[in-house]
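Human: You know discrete backbone vocabularies at least as well as I do. Show me how you would write down a chain together with its backbone fold. No explanation is needed for now; the record alone will do.

Assistant:
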Amino acid sequence: MSSIFHMVSNAGPFLIKLLVAMLVFSVIVIFHELGHFLLAKRNGIGVVEFSLGMGPRLISTVKGETRYSVKLLPFGGSCIMVGEDGDEQGENTFNNAPIWGRIAVVAAGPIFNFFMAFAFAMIIVSVVGYDPAEVMEVPEGSPAAEAGLQAGDIITKFEGRSVDIARDMDTYIALHGLTSDEINLTYTRDGKKQSVRYQAESVEKYMLGFGYTPDGPAEITSLSRGLPLEEAGLQIGDVITSIDGTPIGDANGLVKYLEANPLSSQRVTIGYERDGKEKEVSVVPRMNKNISLGFAYNLGREKTNFLGVMKYSFIEVKYWIRTTVESLFMLVKGQFTVNDLSGPVGIVNAIGDSIDQAKPEGTKMVSLQMIYWAILLSANLGVMNLLPIPALDGGRLVFLIIEAIRGKALNRNVEGMVHFAGFMLLMALMVFVMFNDIRKLF
């Protein structure tokens, strides 16, 4: 019964989160479907219905040959074209359009998402700038210093991975960690490119696998995959409040506690705060090699000129596309599981949390957070829709490309059944992910 009262008391904040998330989702979906709509009209294909949402219609109007609708479920949308999923023939049917016209229509949705992500990225980069992968500090006598690295150097490649912005390094380390003592990187100094290789300092010790703010509350800023706190479900933004019953007042208190009580193979109880609620988890520290880069790099942002805005807006979209593709590969390889996926419920909660964190900094920061989420989700939707999975745009493109190569279409009924089966599987996955999100919340 107490959980019901808790849900009711939080209905206001949750409703605000839901409305903000619906606004972001709606803009992304409308732009995606607008891509299909405009290219369909351009290629003489009739559009039966253009809708935002799924399920029963709430609002609907007909203009010309097209019905425009807003539906009950706020996630998703559609641009239903004449003869799209059957063998229907006619002057304005999908199948009557030229093959390359049909390919353009199907590809337009994801491509419009990338365009939208770029447009929003221009706002972000114009207002807050970009994050150059600049070396900020190299301790004297460190392996990196002895290899010749200096403050002010701009890193362009790290462990064989191209680096355009500092987050490229940050994401690589967060996803893969540092697995070798040997560090390889390329940097530019005074316009000249140089490469270095050095043996980093490392130490094996028991770890929980998290980073935290140097000042103020002991707020978690990073989590290492495969280490205890990440596996126990802690999240970035959680604040460590106690260890084995000893209160941890702030980051300085956490440092002093760990110095006085080094972690061992003994189980520890971690108390932490999330969304104003106290939680507790029991974990066993794990022996792990801690590798030090030997230098500090920039994680702030700096302004740039108009050409820089164009360049780094493109790089911003590229960053999110690459991160999405890399995460998918890790999912296929088993480094991520379906439990790591987030659906609409999880995204609503994440958007709401980021908006809550931005509120103290004013309306401008809240607006920028919403735009940032629109970039992330729009790039993500573009990539996901290009996957060669039946019912998605990528799956339809596979059939169209086969038709272009063969010079004739595959059996339309068979194609329709394949897409229907893919749609049902996607719906089943969505339901699973939704319940998984709800389980994580409670």
Observations:
- Residues 1-11 have pLDDT under 50 and may be disordered.
- Residues 2-127+377-386 form one domain.
